[in-house]
Amino acid sequence: MAAKRYELNEAQWSKISSLLPGKTGDAGRTAADNRLFVNGCLWVLRSGAHWCDLPERYGKWKTVHRRFSRWCHAGVWERVFAALTADRDNQYLMIDSTIVRAHQQAASGKGGPGIRRWGAPEVD
């Protein structure tokens, strides 16, 4: 079965599944739905929708959001991203303008007479 929009395919899932908590042998509860949970997170993050608009097939949105937040605080996502960026065969690593931020003063418009470069009036 092909992956649905915004969901991980088999190759992508196999790269991160061993990095996620909830495996047999890990402390605590064994997660039976890690893939469904990750796909739900990706759906929200890639679609730009609110958490409350998460489709029901991924579970209750509050539960998914709470687990997403716990994984953020536990550093799970950082470990996954670190492993993916260390992989030289990663074809999907890219940086675009949504990641690179400019200083707020870089957005100021063109100045006219009596206006200095940073938008403050000249003092004589």
Automatic annotation (TrEMBL):
Organism of origin: Nitrobacter winogradskyi (strain ATCC 25391 / DSM 10237 / CIP 104748 / NCIMB 11846 / Nb-255)
InterPro entries: IS402-like_dom, Transposase_6_like
Stretches assigned to the Insertion element IS402-like domain: 8-81
The name this protein goes by in its record: Transposase
Domain of life: Bacteria
